[in-house]
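Figure 3 (text version): structure tokens given as input.
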């Protein structure tokens, strides 16, 4: 009887503990959702504020609170930015320069990473170290040497100088991201390919490169965001309107006596739309690519 009584008492005491634990879990999740919601609002509000800013006139920008809604939305700011501001040409230049730079960076970084991680040669460690050291060189310290070099090669005011600069400065980071995946890539696959008669080139193009697509997607997105938002190289090496990109073309609305802030806001909204869409649709690829080299086996 005493054992039965003890079991009943234990059972009766476990119910309130389970209920209390479930109640605390709900409070914890509610607090977590509240914090995440606040962070989401803080992150999204600047974009919403920029859209409202692009629909204002200069009088509303300077005469009203910066947080006020536009009284009469100026949708023609977008038409003005696209037509009279030459934003259509700048948008096209940003697209093809970004795409070409990203493709070159990914191809060259894949070659380098494959050569220093999957092939045995004497100076592989030194070459890899030089690429990684280049990552620590400040961008602004290279402007004058690069300007002199491009000027001697007649590449000033030529988009080739922008593509080369983007590719060179993105290579170290891209190689660092690829290293984690290549070092965990099973060598048994390559050994089996060699036994089947594959050459080094076929192993790279037909086996290794297709298997690195997740991490290549990550590097492509990161490089695209950097190239799309870059300002210093274009402002230094490009002077004519024919080759300017969106980030530099915004200056066309800044005058000596009058600045069209509404058109500038519309241009900024147009410039961030491709990046937002790319990130929304491919954000999962970034996480997959970052985690691709973290798990071995």
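Below: residues designed for each position.
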């Amino acid at each position: 009887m005493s054992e039965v009584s003890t079991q009943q008492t234990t059972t009766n005491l476990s119910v309130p503990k389970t209920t209390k634990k479930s109640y605390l879990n709900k409070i914890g999740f509610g607090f977590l959702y509240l914090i995440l919601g606040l962070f989401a609002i803080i992150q999204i509000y600047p974009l919403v504020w920029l859209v409202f800013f692009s629909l204002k006139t200069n009088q509303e920008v300077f005469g009203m609170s910066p947080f006020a809604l536009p009284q009469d939305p100026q949708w023609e700011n977008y038409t003005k930015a696209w037509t009279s501001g030459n934003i259509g040409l700048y948008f096209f230049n940003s697209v093809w320069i970004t795409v070409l730079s990203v493709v070159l960076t990914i191809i060259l970084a894949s070659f380098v990473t494959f050569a220093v991680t999957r092939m045995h040669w004497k100076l592989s460690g030194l070459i890899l170290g030089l690429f990684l050291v280049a990552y620590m060189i400040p961008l602004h310290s290279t402007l004058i040497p690069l300007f002199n070099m491009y000027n001697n090669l007649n590449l000033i005011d030529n988009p080739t100088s922008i593509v080369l600069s983007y590719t060179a400065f993105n290579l170290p980071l891209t190689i660092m991201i690829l290293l984690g995946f290549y070092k965990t890539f099973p060598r048994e696959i390559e050994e089996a390919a060699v036994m089947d008669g594959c050459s080094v080139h076929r192993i790279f193009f037909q086996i290794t490169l297709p298997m690195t697509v997740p991490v290549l997607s990550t590097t492509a997105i990161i490089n695209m965001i950097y190239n799309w938002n870059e300002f210093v190289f274009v402002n230094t090496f490009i002077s004519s309107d024919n080759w300017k990109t969106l980030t530099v073309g915004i200056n066309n609305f800044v005058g000596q006596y009058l600045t069209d802030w509404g058109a500038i806001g519309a241009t900024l909204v147009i410039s961030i739309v491709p990046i937002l869409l790319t990130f929304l649709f491919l954000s999962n690829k970034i996480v997959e690519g970052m985690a691709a080299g973290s798990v071995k086996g």
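The radius of gyration is 27 Å.
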